[in-house]
Amino acid sequence: MADRNPSKQKTPMREQPPGERVRNFEEVPLGYSEDEAVAEAKRCLQCKKRPCVAGCPVNVPIPEFVKLVAQRSFAEAAAMVRRENLLPAICGRVCPQEDQCERECVLSKSGEPVAVGRLERFVADWEARHGGVSVPQKAASSGRAVAVIGSGPASLTCAAELARAGHRVVLMEALHAPGGVLAYGIPEFRLPKRIVGREVDGLKALGVELRTNVVVGRTVTVPELLAEYDAVFVGTGAGLPKFMGVPGENLNGVYSANEFLTRVNLMRAGREGGRTPIVARRSAAVIGGGNTAMDAARTALRLGCKPVYVVYRRTMEEMPARAEEIHHAQEEGVEFMLLVAPTEVLGDGSGWVRGLTLQRMELGEPDESGRRRPVPVEGDTFTLDVDTVIVAVSQGPNPLVPRTTEGLKTDRKGYIVVDPETGRTNVDRVFAGGDIAGGSSVIDAMGAGRRAAVAINELLKSS
């Protein structure tokens, strides 16, 4: 089935033109047509060793589903993906395939790998357009119950797997809408909320009970849940913002990226009549170089800021954001200021931001991350004229559950310590996974949620 002489480049995906998309929050990539998906699938060499599968945290049978796409068996391809990946429409859009399955693709040695993520998105969207998402079969009721805290990718996966195993599952979300970081942290132009809603609806169809506005640690505690449920899974994420520790960070017009994106994504701050408005007045500087920084910068553009700067203390080569996100930001007009770091946020005398003092940097010896450490260039500072500053330097683990669960072990950074193979914590019947346990991506969180579900199921069957 595979083409013996595949193209060295991926089949291009159509996108909104940059000049149009900066004026809306609609999704930027438009997805493959059936013919485009088939053309891309035919590039796959159908390797016997299947190195791409080893690069997938949830072990999707990539060559097999890609072969089905090449044969135009789209429904069968979607069903095959969904057996291992319960959130394919989401993963196909936001997972870093270039660092996982696609990195292992044999074609990447002489050109571009098979576009696994684009094909995964295609089959999930095709399935939704042609009769909706199929609901996996469930085992008979076990009579056991599990509380799942949070509704991000780790929790959604854990809840679905446990529901399929026949357990009663109650999913508890602190905010008014489910989805966790998928809903509050990723803008509509990268991950439309209807896609998140579609996957949550699939969870409800499995019988999972969803409770919003439940703040575990305040409304109810983990010890109280253990008195009612047979096990608890903690997937509360890493939504604790970190700031730079420089003078002026308390001025009006300074936002954490977490607050900025949550207001726009969930509270409609970017829409007319929004009840929690973002005051993005004229120009903005986003501090950081990760995907969250790209999301914040591109969102600020859509709110009317111009210019928008990404301020990063290293060079483009060290920037941790996905290459696709950097490319989209550049296309849309975001300006990158590299090898600079803020030393002070400047005020206008009435409590509002008027600018940043920036220190020029140079790269020294590698640090613990393996990247060259930025070192200040003595005496070389300048002022950047902006009135909005968005800090996207880092986020820490949500501390509420650990603080209110006596004896729960955390590491020095506050992440819950778990057995990486099972998600078990040191507290009996309590499991955790995803960003709260040090996860790094949507698909990694899903893998952690699945492993925890397997361990919880074994515990419930043996007790």
Describe this structure in words.
- The protein is an alpha/beta fold and 463 residues long.
- It folds into three domains: 18-129, Fumarate Reductase Iron-sulfur Protein, Chain B, domain 2 (Orthogonal Bundle); 145-238 and 397-462, FAD/NAD(P)-binding domain (3-Layer(bba) Sandwich), CATH 3.50.50; 240-395, 3-Layer(bba) Sandwich (FAD/NAD(P)-binding domain), CATH 3.50.50.
- Helix content is 33%, strand content 17%.
- It has helices at 18-21, 34-41, 51-54, 62-70, 74-84, 88-94, 101-104, 116-129, 153-164, 181-184, 193-205, 222-228, 257-266, 291-302, 323-332, 400-403, 442-462; strands at residues 145-149, 168-172, 209-211, 231-234, 240-241, 254-256, 284-287, 308-312, 335-338, 340-347, 353-366, 372-384, 388-391, 395-396, 430-432.
- Helix 13 packs across helix 14 (291-302).
In short:
Helix content is 33%, strand content 17%. By secondary structure, it is an alpha/beta fold.
Labels describing this entry:
3 domains; 15 strands; FAD/NAD(P)-binding domain; 463 residues; five-stranded parallel β-sheet; Fumarate Reductase Iron-sulfur Protein, Chain B, domain 2; globular; 33% helix; alpha/beta
Which percent range fits the helix content? Answer: 25-40%
Major beta-sheet overview = 5 strands, parallel
Report the sheet-strand fraction: 15-25%
CATH architecture of the largest domain: 3-Layer(bba) Sandwich
Count of distinct strands:
15
Task: Give me the secondary-structure category.
Answer: alpha/beta
**Computed Rg:** 23 Å
Calculate the terminal CA-CA distance, rounded to whole Å: 49 Å
What is the count of helical runs?
Answer: 17
